[in-house]
Design goal:
The protein is an alpha/beta fold. It is built from nine helices and nine strands. Helix 6 crosses helix 7 and helix 8 runs antiparallel to helix 9. The longest helix is centred in the last third of the chain and has 19 residues.
Length: about 280
């Protein structure tokens, strides 16, 4: 893949002007910065899918709760620029005031009941904030395709529902989880972990790997997750197997795709992992 000229824009008028100048297909990669190899895998996939790539670099305050790490969330625009220089056409890195002249916004998007379970139960309002900013960024960047990682499995499912339910003219492309050599899912929050914490955090990847290996039996998948919760190797928030269409936990009678989703705290840092399996037997 050839190198391209990367342009940084920080305002909506600048973005619109630069976007209008792009001919051919466009892919958008949405990030909150602190770019790592997982983000670069999204960029690489976007480059395969479209003629041009826009990366958004914005820490969205709407998706952080009152006791979460918005102020402490890692920000290093210079490092982000260096990481994707020559790989994307545009980087849109707006200030909060640029994206939200009124905060909270008068009009926003709601995720509905599916946004209140699992991750949404732990973080009330989180997915309303995610879907609001995703809608805004899709409107601003006008992509043909937008790529999202599978690690944030509930987010991916809800973005897919957003696009389908609101008839947004974009295709959502899932990208597999990027992992450290140890198996730990790559995350911007991994920088908060000590070496011992990273070893402890492997309980998440072991659990999703074991649950996926238990397929095609729905009951076996559920049993693996129940056993993990009982062992309590980490401070689990949840370890669940859900129907991707409803995000409700499956029963032994479920047949079809299963989302295996886990979340836990390690050294005070909240981590996620996920996998997709197929249930064809009780």
């Amino acid at each position: 893949m050839s190198e391209r000229t990367t342009t940084l824009v920080t305002t909506i008028p600048q973005l619109r002007e630069q976007r209008d100048a792009l001919s051919g297909s466009v892919a958008t990669v949405m990030t909150m910065g602190a770019l790592h190899d997982g983000h670069l895998a999204l960029v690489a996939r976007a480059r395969e899918l479209a003629d041009h790539v826009i990366l958004t670099d914005f820490v969205n305050p709407l998706q952080f709760g009152p006791h979460e790490d918005f102020d402490a969330y890692p920000r290093d625009l210079g490092a982000d620029l260096a990481a994707v220089d020559g790989l994307v056409d545009l980087i849109f890195a707006p200030a909060v005031e640029e994206m939200y002249p009124v905060l909270p916004p008068t009009v926003s998007v709601t995720a509905g009941p599916a946004g209140t379970v699992l991750e949404g139960a732990q973080r009330p309002g989180h997915f309303d904030g995610v879907l609001t900013v995703v809608t805004k960024l899709l409107q601003l960047t006008r992509p043909d395709v937008s790529v999202f990682g599978r690690k944030d499995a509930q987010q991916l499912a809800l973005v897919q529902r957003l696009v389908a339910d609101l008839h947004l003219p974009v295709r959502i492309e899932p990208v597999d989880i990027q992992r450290e050599p140890s198996g730990l899912a790559r995350s911007s929050r991994n920088i908060y972990l000590s070496e011992g914490g990273k070893q402890e955090a492997l309980a998440l990847s072991r659990t999703v790997t074991a649950a996926r290996a238990a397929a095609p039996s729905a009951s076996a998948i559920r049993a693996v997750l129940a056993d993990a919760l009982d062992r309590a190797e980490v401070t689990w928030d949840y370890a669940a197997a859900v129907d991707p269409a409803t995000l409700r936990e499956i029963t032994d009678a479920h047949r079809g795709e299963v989302l295996i989703m886990v979340a836990a705290r390690v050294e005070g840092t909240r981590l996620l992992d996920a996998a997709v399996a197929e249930a064809t037997a009780p």
